[in-house]
Automatic annotation (TrEMBL):
Biological process per Gene Ontology, one example term: carbohydrate metabolic process
Native species: Mycobacterium asiaticum
Gene3D superfamilies documented for this protein: Glutaredoxin
All residue ranges annotated as the Spermatogenesis-associated protein 20-like TRX domain in the record: 10-164
Domain of life the protein comes from: Bacteria
Protein name: Spermatogenesis-associated protein 20-like TRX domain-containing protein
SUPFAM superfamilies: Six-hairpin glycosidases, Thioredoxin-like
Cited Pfam families: Thioredox_DsbH
Amino acid sequence: MSPADPAGTNTLGLATSPYLRQHADNPVHWRQWTPAALDEAATRDLPILLSIGYAACHWCHVMAHESFEDDEVAAAMNAGFVCIKVDREERPDIDAVYMNATVALTGQGGWPMTCFLTPDGRPFFCGTYYPKDSFLQLLSAITETWRDRRGEVEQASDQIAGELRSMALGLPGGGPDIAPELCDHAVAAVLRDQDTVHGGFGGPPKFPPSALLEALLRHYERTGSAAALQAVTRAGNAMARGGMYDQLAGGFARYSVDAQWVVPHFEKMLYDNALLLRAYAHWARRTGDPVGRRVTAQTARFLLDDLADGDVFTSSLDADADGREGSTYVWTPAQLTDILGPEDGRWAMQVFGVTESGTFEHGSSVLQLRDEPDDPQRLDRIRARLLSVRGDRAQPGRDDKVVTGWNGLAITALAEASVTLDDAELADAARRCATTLLDRHLVDGRLRRASLGEVVGDSAAILEDYAMLATGLLALYQLRPEDSWLATAADLLDTAVRHFRDPQRPGRWYDTADDAEQLVLRPSDPLDGATPSGASSIAEALLTAAHLLDGARAERYLQLVGLTMEAHSVLLARAPRSAGHWLAVAEAVVRGPLQIAVSCAGPSALLTDARRLAPGGAIVVGGAADSLPLLAGRPRVDGGDAAYVCRGRTCDLPVTSADRLAAALGVPG
């Protein structure tokens, strides 16, 4: 046993994860997931009790208070198990393996995840949240089974491990070609699942469909589909006006517990807000919708004000404050009247939907904004007053862990929002984030997953980290090509190709590197979930980089994009709601993708117009002729700036005005 893991102690105070540190004072003898902890289980001949969660998780807090802080429960855990805590955000590879096992055994998953493993990591019993009494009964039953019926445990763990390996074989081959018809089919299937009354897709709980919104916007720009744009408008408005959106400070909560977007699960995640910022920025840029523009500005501000830690962005805000979920955010009529006075209080009740019966617990209400008020200045004044009072309440905790991939999403979103809002501050924030992230997380040529307090953790980055950061760097490069973002992005992509590509199955990717820790199986999940999958993210990054580079590297990237999209096209054919980011990438693929190269001398109004008019997934660069691969042999025209629109390797004649550029792109000017 390592000196850092002495028997009979809790070692989580040594962790770089805020979630693990939340449990450092538990009477449970928690360990981190390390070789020493696994060796301890083998030496003591005890099963592993693996508990996986994250810092902003409400039910993780509930189980901690009920069980992990309880001396009786801790005694049973310490006597019969080697207890290991894992932050799913820091070790998504471990989380993926045992979530697959939990879903396979129980039919559902969630956090906290509670798994019982053999000392070599094979699961034999899995679940999620357990109340104290049920958990004590379970601990007793597992202990007895381990002691008296070991053969049954070994048989079950072998069977489960075998099923997990079978599941890891992945998708069937032979999917359809990536073509306009496949995208049309996928969009039609998605729209059939639309909630045409309340917006979004499916029933409660309702999660923000960030990737689908982006894909539908790209589809609208390619086809002019009114139905696709209507779905985006309906969902965008519903989410922005409902309780899932913070009507005072901006930023989105994790999901809505109801179909109407009224009551959220109050945690706020960086990845949700970055993905939604990108989608709203695109919607606002394309349509000029005032709700889209307002939410773009407010969500960007939320990132900078509430999630920034220096130049980088932290992971989340908790659902709870002072042990109560949502207590920071909800209001009663009496509170509004006391704070604002009778007249403004009544007006605020009407505007924000605050009622005597309430929409949340104990007669309190989550603020909504169902209609734009006729007095925006009054609304701004009331917002400021309520926000000031809210600042004196107990505040949710913040998970200050800095995750590489999620910061990559934020870089991309801020870069795109800077174009929508013509706000150089957002682009500068994205550049600072990228610079700091690379300085801190790129160690000996390889990315690390996370850091805390400027100290980088030991956990290796996964595929999504390389892909999402590379995409962010490529977005920055398009804003300012003289910087070195393209070279750095290409280096990251080369590393990802070398270590994450499946050499036996063309176009398939693993989520962990070939030299990462070997778990029961090597995770490889192509489905888009709360965040885009690593595989769909690497496809986007490779596609963009291929058209910004030239030569053999560009051709190699294009070949990889083709293989990757071909290997996963079955998702668009069979499960498009779980392939939103795949659909967004496919829409770019079938358009070429579009590239706009503006030959200019210095600041250029035409380049600004090109960025404003560019459809989602398009690539836009500007500079002097021959200064970039896309500008090779493309000079200015008659002494003025000129825009060259290309689809794949085919380019139109240059245009010199915004109206002609809009016509060439087939978008409203």
